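Quick one: C-alpha cells for this chain, please?
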Amino acid sequence: MATGTPDSSWFRGSKPPTAWVPDGWPPHQITLVYEQPIKANSIRIYQTTPNLLAGGSITLYSATGNPVGTIPIPGSADSTNAPLVEEISIPSNIEPIKSLQIEFSANHGGIDAVELVGPTGNAWAVKRYRYRERVEP
C-alpha cells in the first residue's frame, strides 16, 4: 500500500489490495515518509496502471519538514507502452529527503511502492498519509 517493497500483482489496470488506491475525487495526494533522510538521485514509483501519475507532481521535504523542491511527473504519449515502474530524476542540488508528497488526478490505478534511489543505497517508504491527514515529523 505504497510502503515497503513492491508486493502487488502486475496486471495492467488492476487495483490489487496490496496497492494504495485513491478514494474520492481528484486531485489525489499521498505523502510518504522514509526512516532516515536519504540523498537521492531518483524516485522509482511502482504503479499498477501506466501513466497513472502523468501530469502530477512530487514535492520533496527535508528532515525538518521544509519543502526542498517540486518535480513534475512526465506522461507518455502512448499509455499502452508506458512503464509500470516510473523513474523520475531528482536535481543534484536537492538536500537529503525525509518525505515526499505525490499529487495527481487519475482515478484508475494504484501505487504499490515508492523507492528513493541514491548513490549509497535505496530506501522504501515506512509510513503513508492520505490527503488532509496530519504528517508527523
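The chain has a mean pLDDT of 83.
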